[in-house]
Amino acid sequence: MDSSQAPLISNSRHDDDAPYDAAADERASRAAAGKASNEQPGLFVLILTFAAGISGLLFGYDTGVISATLVSIGKALSDRDLTSMDKSIITSSTSLFALLISPFSSHIADRLGRKRVILYADVLFIVGAALQAVSSTVPLMVAGRCIIGAAVGAASFVVPLYIAEVAPSSYRGRLVTINVLFITLGQMAAYVIGWALSTYASQETGWRWMVGLGALPAALQGALVALMPETPRWLVKAGRSDDARRVVQKVNGVQGRFDGTAEAIIKEIEMEVREEEEMRLLQDRHASGPWKGLGVWHELLSVGKHRRALAIACLLQGLQQLCGFNSLMYFSATIFSIMGFESPTLTSLIVAITNFVFTLVALVLIDRIGRRRILLYSIPFMALGLLLAAAGFSHLSLEPSPAARNDDEATPSKTEVEHETRPAVVVLVSIMVYVASYALGLGNVPWMQSELFPLSVRSAGSGVATATNWAANFAVGLTFLPLMDALSPSWTFVLYAVVCAVGYGLVWRIYPETAGLSLEEATALLDHGWGVR
Ligand SMILES: O[C@H]1[C@H](O)[C@@H](O)[C@H](O)[C@@H](O)[C@H]1O
Questions:
Q1: How many CB atoms lie within 10 A of CB 108?
Q2: Mutual orientation of helices 215-225 and 43-72 as an angle, nearest 10°?
Q3: Dihedral, CA atoms, 168, 170, 174, 175, nearest 10 degrees?
Q4: pLDDT of 80-104, one tens digit each?
Q5: DSSP for 436-452?
Q6: Which of 290, 351, 358, 531 is most solvent-facing, going by the fewest CB within 10 Å?
Q7: Which protein residue has the closest C-alpha to ligand 1 atom 1?
Q8: Where are the annotated segments for Disordered (predicted)?
Q9: Atom number, ligand 1, closest to the C-alpha of residue 355
């Protein structure tokens, strides 16, 4: 037996016995583990999900708070008004660092554990918040945003992983949406706090509190991490099956006693880890030339069904960002301010509330309606909302182009505002239609990416798709205000509508329905084509 055939993790019950039916044993164990996971999640799992979800909250808070911050800074940084370029760089440096850090965090998560990444991210969240709060120049603020970006990148990768690995398997899907719910809740909190501080605190200190407050949940989570266990899957991989058993027993509420279900789950994990390890060895053996040691990438790119899965996952993640949603999340207060709304931060709260409420609705609908179908129903409404907003903008006198002006100059006179109330309301309502339909579909579905990939390429495929998300997020953050300058607000929104239309065609053509299918059935859809009926 060569090393690739030897079991990497010994199975205590069968090691010494003569032949046994490994396949039947495996099936029985998987059935038992599956059965166990059909029960309701216990209090312990809920507490862990909540503790880990604080990272989602921070992800949302720190990306959402920039909207109110940008309109409240005034001349506090570098003693001058922020230019469009300053605003774009302050905003998009966060997504750039999120993009750069995610591959490293997956490496650290494998070597040192998931908990360690959560803890390091908390430290970065605190340092980044403090640096922003005390910054006096644009470069210092950008440095603070970069540190926050590193934290967000690590958290956005590790939290879904942590939750999925500690939670019973039948909850994995719904927990993905719960994580998005935490993100949108964080964004809503950022908008409420942004509005309250920009209205009631002093101009000089209000925005500093906005960005600084992000340190509090991070400190709370940093303290909670000490009490959170490492995931059973990582413990098994690290050769600590006994510790893993204790965690599984706790998750199943059978602490300290023998339990068949917990044993079956541990066996299931051991088998999965062994299969993964064997697959990796096999991939390396079959790879040659420059692919040597990069077997998983070779497999991801050379096998047709994996390539198709990757194309779909990257399409959905790219579309989630290129449709322009985050330009609203980051700049809605700036947009409403140049439209002459008296309280832009209060008005922009509507964006965050609509996003949160419709993510809640998606939680209920997603499994009933299906992923493909919910996208095909919602994307046309996104395009419609964008086109109506573009029409509304064309009736507002926003010349010279708004993003080039500072906010004081951009505020129209009272008579102008009265004259322009109707198109402004049209823009507001259209934006709400757009945000609601985004939250129902594109805001969630791309994060279900892992179900498209078979185990052997799952983390590599999901990693590339996540990087696509951050790269597109960075591109939108950096280009939105310059596009408003160069094309006008109307044409910028038309451009996003065109992205939605192209995206609709591609989703219709290549994204099969995966709702209600087991992971094996879902990945098998792509065996011989796109699987779209
Ligand atoms: O799924 C989330 C959610 O939709 C957020 O509201 C958005 O800001 C993020 O970019 C996205 O990844």
A1: 16
A2: 160
A3: 20
A4: 999 989 999 999 999 999 999 877 7
A5: HHHHHTTTTGGGGGGGG
A6: 290
A7: 443
A8: 1-21
A9: 6
pLDDT tens-place string over residues 234-257 = 999 889 999 999 998 888 776 766
CA distances 134 to 63, 66, 129, 213, Å, are 19, 15, 9, 12
**Measuring CA to CA, how many Å separate 305 from each of 13, 286, 529?**
37, 18, 7
Q: Which atom of ligand 1 lies at the shortest distance from residue 447's CA?
A: 1
Residue with tokens 């008296």: 342
Task: Tell me the two tokens of residue 502.
Answer: 């192209």
ipTM of the complex: 0.98
Separation of alpha carbons 200 and 197, rounded Å: 5
Please, are residues 497 and 386 in contact by the beta-carbon 8 Å criterion?
yes
pTM exceeds 0.80 for this model = yes
Atom of ligand 1 nearest to the CA of 442: 4
The residue type found at 112 is L
Angle at 57 between CA 53 and CA 59, to 5 degrees: 110
Residue listed under structure tokens 């010279």? 400
d(CA 312, ligand 1 centre) in Å: 18
- Reading the block at residue 440, the tokens are 């129902």
